[in-house]
Amino acid sequence: MVELDIQIPSAFDPFAEAKDSDAPGTQENIHIRIQQRNGKKSLTTVQGLKKEYSYERILKDLKKDFCCNGNVVQDKELGKIIQLQGDQRKKVSHFLVQTGIAKKDQIKIHGF
């Protein structure tokens, strides 16, 4: 019999880079990603904010400024993640820099 080298494709994990870090919220980079939903719908996720920040208050300000809906999701491995409706990557990045939550070089924007 002949052995074949077959690689089975696995599902794309948008949080694969973040899993390499030690603990949630301790890394210095803030990752802003976009996930495609059905059709033209998309979801923006913000991950890597420090634990001492109030995620609910940040989410409230983001929702009010961008006129979109969102929520905070608790993940076992990644900690708290902010989810927003639509493609809000550049707006979120600008908001985090403007409010002083993060510096521009700490923010990494992923997707498309």
Automatic annotation (TrEMBL):
One of its GO terms (biological process) is translation. Residues 30-100 form the SUI1 domain. It holds the Pfam family SUI1. CDD domains: eIF1_SUI1. Keywords: Protein biosynthesis, Translation regulation. PANTHER family: EUKARYOTIC TRANSLATION INITIATION FACTOR SUI1. Belongs to the SUI1 family. Probably involved in translation. This is Translation factor SUI1-like protein 1. The lineage of its organism: Eukaryota, Viridiplantae, Streptophyta, Embryophyta, Tracheophyta.
